[in-house]
Design a protein that fits this description.
With about 375 residues, the protein is mainly alpha-helical. The protein is built from 18 helices and 2 strands. The longest helix has 26 residues.
């Protein structure tokens, strides 16, 4: 089973956020009052209020979305461009949980398999996956009010969702990178809805990512690198010269769909588009991070070896991860659907040729 290396955990992670009244915990500010996203501290804590869209605009967008959701099949089949346009503008927070469920197809599957989640929850599950899931529960957003309490309702729901998926798709089982995605979904919707969204994301959007060997992820890493040559040739040449393989910097981005990388407001906007347009949004965000992390004036000179290069990519400047910057730059990328398809076919052909050469050499 493929594994995903979590960020290093401190020995006292089990107690993270149980000390919510302290001023500082493990170097991260802890507040007794959660921010607007439910965080009590940690890197995702954002105490400042978001610059608000006028209430009249929010109301108008909510009404448009409610009308669209009530005629969902018609919009998706006959007016998908309107759905895409509204997702790109950002889904109103009050509508987001329902919209995500509809966008990924989870609503349809939930109605078709009405009792399946409760049946899966009632099963014990494969002991090896169950043990791995339990070990990872406290690592998922430990500064969020929903997951701060050991064996609280958030962690219990997270366990059931991940266990249910490992039973439903036993060929994949459980991969560590599924946990932050499931936790992220649970922050926005009930467990059964989060489960079917997770199923759709793992089996449709990121098909093959969590399988043993992660071959699909490796191919997409090569596709990303090929697209980088067109988007930021200087960054491409630098990474190629230092032999920095894509798998070294893009694994967490792709497997976790940036839930462990970007500021929270940015993640929400990225997911609005990701669930509408698919994995190409993940590619585009990755290209923005690569282009503006390493492509800024003077940065490449400060990266004489792979070590410095990877440090920059692991810690992108905060201003290039801001919501409006990321969204704006995504649509400034000079990439077409044909570019994606061409690079995809090129990388598949290269891999097939390498496999054929390997077979011939073994004869």
């Amino acid at each position: 089973m493929a594994t995903y290396q979590d960020q290093p955990q401190d020995d006292d992670d089990d107690d993270t956020c149980s000390e919510a009244s302290s001023a500082v915990h493990n170097g991260s500010v802890i507040s007794t009052v959660p921010d607007r996203h439910g965080f009590l501290g940690g890197s995702q804590y954002t105490p400042e209020p978001k610059q608000t869209v006028p209430a009249s605009v929010v109301l108008r967008r909510e009404q448009k979305w409610l009308h669209m959701l009530n005629s969902w099949e018609k919009y998706m089949t006959k007016n998908y461009k309107k759905v895409r346009e509204r997702c790109r503008k950002g889904i109103p927070p009050s509508i987001r949980p329902r919209a995500w469920l509809y966008l990924c197809g989870g609503k349809l599957v939930l109605e078709q398999r009405r009792n399946m989640f409760s049946q899966l929850v009632a099963q014990e599950g494969d002991p090896r996956w169950v043990d791995d899931i339990r070990k990872d529960l406290h690592r998922q957003f430990p500064y969020h009010e929903m997951f701060a309490k050991q064996e609280g309702h958030g962690q219990q729901d997270l366990f059931q969702v991940l266990k249910a998926y490992s039973i439903l798709n036993s060929s994949v089982g459980y991969c560590q990178a599924q946990a932050p995605i499931a936790a992220f979904l649970l922050m926005h919707m009930p467990a059964e809805q989060a489960f079917w969204c997770l199923v759709s994301i793992c089996d449709k959007y990121l098909a093959g990512y969590y399988s043993q060997g992660m071959e699909t992820l490796q191919i997409d890493g090569d596709i990303l690198f090929g697209l980088l040559k067109k988007v930021a040739p200087n960054v491409y040449k630098h990474l190629k010269k230092q032999k920095v393989e894509p798998i070294l910097y893009m694994t967490e981005w792709f497997l976790c769909v940036f839930t462990r990388t970007l500021p929270w407001d940015t993640i929400l906007r990225v997911w609005d588009m990701f669930l509408c347009e698919g994995v190409k949004i993940v590619f585009k965000v990755a290209l923005v991070l690569l282009k503006f992390s390493l492509g800024r004036p003077g940065v490449l000179k400060k990266c004489p070896s792979m070590y410095e290069t990877l440090e920059v990519l692991r810690n992108p400047p905060h201003h290039i991860m801001e919501e409006e910057f990321v969204v704006r730059q995504i649509f400034r990328l000079d990439l077409t659907e044909e570019d994606f398809e061409y690079e995809h076919q090129r990388q598949l052909a290269k891999r097939r040729a390498a496999q054929e050469n390997g077979k011939r050499n073994r004869r």
